[in-house]
């Protein structure tokens, strides 16, 4: 496996982030946008429990509160923190999440907590607000740009076997391509792409990839299914 991540993920363990999280966790509905957000929730709750004046509810999930995850991987990460009653969509992306029945309309002033990070496509919050929700956003982790591992870049350049690219982020793909030397970028574009959604598949085509397919879901098992099926070495 060749790992080409242009990010370092850091939980946003600050007083401001914990205060925003405390407000979000008081909402009738709580949306978690990624496994990284679920892990940051765990980290911030653990840090808050050690603080002189804890402010976060324990456990985070209150009785009668509806929790939503963007996909099964996020739901699994929440379950590992004891939040087991979570709904997620069959289509595991922002559009699928927003199509869930419990998120179609809100009473005036009804609050929705959004546990996420700065950046991204910015689709969820404005859509919920347009449906009447009072969105309480908590940016509880941060993606910080990082240089690609040069050992992994060398492995990519020297790879002779057919490649499969598991694609779950269009922004990450653009950042990876921008950092790769031209020979390595050309080698990567020869890969078969297994994209987590049709939107990402189109991003790959726009970036110069010719062999592009859409996986059954965004999880590792779905993205790597062509390998399991023997379609590629």
Automatic annotation (TrEMBL):
InterPro entries: 4pyrrol_syn_uPrphyn_synt_sf (IPR036108), 4pyrrol_synth_uPrphyn_synth (IPR003754), UROS/Hem4 (IPR039793)
Enzyme class: lyase
Catalytic reactions on record: hydroxymethylbilane = uroporphyrinogen III + H2O
Keywords of this entry: Lyase, Porphyrin biosynthesis
Domain Tetrapyrrole biosynthesis uroporphyrinogen III synthase, first and last residues per copy: 13-224
Pathway(s) this gene product operates in, as recorded in its UniProt entry: Porphyrin-containing compound metabolism; protoporphyrin-IX biosynthesis; coproporphyrinogen-III from 5-aminolevulinate: step 3/4
UniProt EC number: 4.2.1.75
CDD domains: HemD
GO terms of molecular function: uroporphyrinogen-III synthase activity
The keyword Amino-acid biosynthesis is assigned to this record: no
PANTHER family: UROPORPHYRINOGEN-III SYNTHASE, CHLOROPLASTIC
The protein's role, per its UniProt record: Catalyzes cyclization of the linear tetrapyrrole, hydroxymethylbilane, to the macrocyclic uroporphyrinogen III.
Family the entry assigns: Belongs to the uroporphyrinogen-III synthase family.
Descriptive protein name: Uroporphyrinogen-III synthase
Source species: Lysobacter yananisis
